[in-house]
């Protein structure tokens, strides 16, 4: 479907504000291995922006740069550098004290903040994220790093003491796990990537980091800071196609931890490549099909507002987005009318446009995929009920609200990860509970209503099915101090500021019978600073 109402969506080159123009194409050849920025002489992968520009010849998609297509030998050198730097836990980085590792991360944070405008601009150009949301992602990432440092200090203070139980004295500390392969998602290529990368590093692991498939150039402004702020081999940054890089790394068996945010299918394929999967620890953020359930007594003003933003913020390209709306049949007519009215207020445009609410999509072929979902739903009885719903222009897809949706439709079970909003009418609450129980996913659910007894029964039903139950609010990740996890195919491991420090480390203790001889030995070790592990130093 096409429509003239989008004719003014994409800009001419001259109309792009000077502050947000890219001064030149960014052809990146550098990658980071063993503390050195190495220039790649081989083939490069073009980086396409979701932004098209109007020319005399029509629309042209912007090519904003390119990145290295590394081959197997190069990525294996990066892995070897990480293995060497870890040195079975005796390398320089893992052997640092907690305070020393914190100092390095703090230095990196200072350097990172100097690159804010560059990274924000690349977020807009690479993935189509609005200026406001790009700035929010950058700032939230910095705040996450500060919070991580503060929580680690507190954790280490507690570890500085000795415990004494049943005549056994012990000091319990957290130590790193080994070599981490870190890969983040394109929708939050900075924030969600760093929510695993920084905890992995600060706990003393060494890392091979492969940036997201889209949103890859924005790491370039940070390469020198990574090089300068961490010891050689502690952080290694590679680029290339997954089949040429990830498989080669996993097949060696030298990766101890997989930190991956993407699809459960992708995670399964990667894990299967490891020759000893029982020795591979995985921290995974995966798919979701989070439902909103709007009960007949819900505050419709709030429910509509939360559901519009919950399903369409960043074009619905969030794992925490509301991906299907169950609305009680007694209020579904009013809900859909008010939903469409609020949706119509969202402004389509370019990421830098003031007040923009809908932007182009970065994934090649995504508009065709979404079109297919809509067509399938229509074939099985749904209608596109909002004006201009499903209109496409180049990489832009105007949100399509589908109603009534039923179980025969792909969009009923598939995670659309885009601006398609399926609405299901329900009669009994049990129908919604059955949907969540039968789903392959179990990240979050949102309940909108007022009756405490009904809500309590739903909370009890969902508590064993999802990681978070939101009451009269959209699904979301934050605050970052709260646990972020999921069940079934939605996650493995828990991420929050404190949980991330735990999942990238393991508790180890030194224990001895509490007698005078052992007390003297331990006292000498601590007073003379003979051990990096045993210490009563207190971090302020």
Written description of the protein model:
The chain is an alpha/beta fold. It has 2 domains: 4-285, 3-Layer(aba) Sandwich (Aldehyde Dehydrogenase, Chain A, domain 1), CATH 3.40.605; 290-492, Aldehyde Dehydrogenase, Chain A, domain 2, CATH 3.40.309. It has 16 helices and 27 strands. The strands form 8 sheets. Strands 17-20-21-14-13-23-24 form a 7-stranded mixed beta sheet, sandwiched between helices. A hairpin with a 2-residue loop joins strand 18 (392-393) and strand 19. Helix 4 crosses helix 5 (131-159). It starts with 25 loop residues before the first strand and ends in a 13-residue tail after the last helix. The model has no long low-confidence stretch (mean pLDDT 96).
Beginning-to-end CA distance, first to last residue: 61 Å
**CATH topology description of the largest domain:** Aldehyde Dehydrogenase, Chain A, domain 1
Highest-level CATH class of the largest domain: Alpha Beta
Q: Please state the average pLDDT score.
A: 96
Please state how the strands of the largest beta sheet are arranged side by side: 17-20-21-14-13-23-24
Number of helical regions = 16
Structural class: alpha/beta
Low-confidence blocks of residues: none
Radius of gyration: 25 Å
Largest sheet: 7 strands, mixed
CATH superfamily of the largest domain: Aldehyde Dehydrogenase, Chain A, domain 1
Helical proportion, percent range? 25-40%
Keywords:
2 domains, 540 residues, six-stranded mixed beta sheet, Aldehyde Dehydrogenase, Chain A, domain 1, 16 helices, 36% helix, seven-stranded mixed beta sheet, alpha/beta, 23% strand, 27 strands, Aldehyde Dehydrogenase, Chain A, domain 2
